[in-house]
Amino acid sequence: MSDGYGAAGRIALGAPVHETIDTDSPASWVALDAEVRDLAPHAASRLPTRQELQGLPAGGPTPTEVARIALALCHPDGRVRGAALEPASGVATLRPLLVVRCADWAAPVRLRARELLADVSGRRLVPLAGLILLLARRERGGFARGLLDSALRDGPAADVESLLTSQDRAVRRIGYRIAVDRRLLTPAELARTAATASGDTRVRALCAEAALAGMGEGDHEDVVDPLLAARSPQVRSAGVTALRRAGRHSEAAAFLADRAGVVRACARYVLRQAGTDPLPLYRSMCADPARHPAAAAGLGECGSRADAEALWALTAHPVPAVRAHAVAGLCALDAVRSERMRPLIDDQAAPVVRAAGRALRPYATGLPSDWLLARMAPGLPAPTRLAAQRLMAVRNRAQARGLPVVR
Question: What is the mean pLDDT of residues 220-229?
Answer without folding.
Answer: 95
